[in-house]
C-alpha cells in the first residue's frame, strides 16, 4: 500500500501498545466500518500489514484467523489469492444494536464529550490550515450523504467528512482520534430500521461547517462542529432509551 492516502495511513498507523492480535482485528474492522476498505477489496499481504502496523507476522496471521471467524475477511488461494474484505451489514447491525443497548448514559456522554473536543478542535485547525482544494472533496461527501439510500452509505459518508476535516488539520494524532471515534460511534448513530438521524439535516450541518472552514473562520467552524456533535450525541441517547425500553 505504498503511496497511501493520509486517511489510510492513519487507519493503519503503527500500533502503540503490545501489538496483540485483537488490536489488529480492531484496526481492520474500523477501516471496514467507516468505508476506508470496501467489500471485495484486498488487504495488504501479511508481511506488508505487519510492517505497517509494527507487529510480528504471526500476530497478523492470528488476527486474520479471527477476522475470518467473524465473517469480515475471506482468504482465497492461488495466483490471485489473498485476504479480502467482506462486509456482512446484517451481522454488524445486531452487534451495534446490542452495544448501544448495553452502554450506559454516562458512557455515551463520555464518548460524546470526546467527540465534541476532537471534532471541534479539528474544524478550528482545518479553518486555519486547510488546502484550497478541500472544498471539492468535502462537498462531494455532503452530496453523497444527501443521496445515500442505506444506513451504511450514510454512515460512511458522514465518517469520511469528519475524517477529511481532521486530515486537513495536518495533525496525525487528531486524524487517528477522529478515525477511532467514527469507527466507534458511527455504527451506533446510523443504525438501520429508522433509528438513524435525519441525513438531510446532517448534510446541511456539514455544509455550514465547510463554509466556515473555507472562509477561514476558525471560531465559527469550531462552534458549528461542536453543535453538530451535540446533535449526534442527543440522537444516540434517544435511540439508547428507545432500545432499552423495548
Automatic annotation (TrEMBL):
Species of provenance: Streptomyces griseoruber
GO molecular function, one term: DNA binding
Name of the protein in question: GntR family transcriptional regulator
CDD domains in alphabetical order: WHTH_GntR (cd07377)
Domain HTH gntR-type: 18-88
Keywords from the UniProt entry: DNA-binding, Transcription, Transcription regulation
Top-rank lineage group of the source organism: Bacteria
Parts of the chain that traverse the membrane: none
PANTHER family: TRANSCRIPTIONAL REGULATOR, GNTR FAMILY (PTHR43537), UXU OPERON TRANSCRIPTIONAL REGULATOR (PTHR43537:SF5)
Amino acid at each position: 500500500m505504498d503511496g497511501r492516502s493520509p486517511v489510510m495511513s492513519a487507519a493503519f498507523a503503527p500500533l502503540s501498545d503490545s501489538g496483540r492480535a485483537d488490536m489488529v482485528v480492531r484496526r481492520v474492522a474500523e477501516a471496514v466500518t467507516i468505508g476506508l476498505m470496501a467489500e471485495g477489496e484486498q488487504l495488504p499481504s501479511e508481511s506488508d500489514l505487519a510492517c505497517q502496523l509494527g507487529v510480528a507476522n504471526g500476530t497478523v496471521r492470528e488476527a486474520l484467523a479471527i477476522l475470518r471467524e467473524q465473517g469480515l475477511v475471506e482468504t482465497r488461494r492461488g495466483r490471485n489469492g489473498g485476504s479480502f474484505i467482506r462486509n456482512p451489514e446484517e451481522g454488524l447491525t445486531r452487534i451495534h444494536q446490542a452495544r448501544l443497548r448495553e452502554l450506559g448514559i454516562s458512557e455515551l456522554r463520555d464518548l460524546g464529550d470526546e467527540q465534541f473536543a476532537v471534532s471541534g478542535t479539528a474544524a478550528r485547525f482545518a479553518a486555519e490550515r486547510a488546502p484550497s482544494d478541500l472544498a471539492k472533496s468535502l462537498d462531494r461527501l455532503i452530496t453523497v450523504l444527501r443521496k445515500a439510500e442505506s444506513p451504511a452509505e450514510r454512515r460512511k459518508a458522514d465518517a469520511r467528512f469528519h475524517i477529511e476535516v481532521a486530515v486537513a488539520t495536518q495533525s496525525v494524532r487528531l486524524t487517528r482520534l477522529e478515525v477511532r471515534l467514527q469507527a466507534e460511534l458511527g455504527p451506533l448513530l446510523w443504525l438501520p430500521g429508522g433509528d438513524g438521524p435525519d441525513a438531510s439535516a446532517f448534510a446541511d450541518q456539514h455544509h455550514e461547517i465547510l463554509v466556515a472552514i473555507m472562509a477561514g473562520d476558525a471560531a465559527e467552524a469550531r462552534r458549528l462542529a461542536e453543535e453538530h456533535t451535540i446533535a449526534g450525541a442527543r440522537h444516540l441517547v434517544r435511540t439508547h432509551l428507545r432500545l432499552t425500553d423495548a
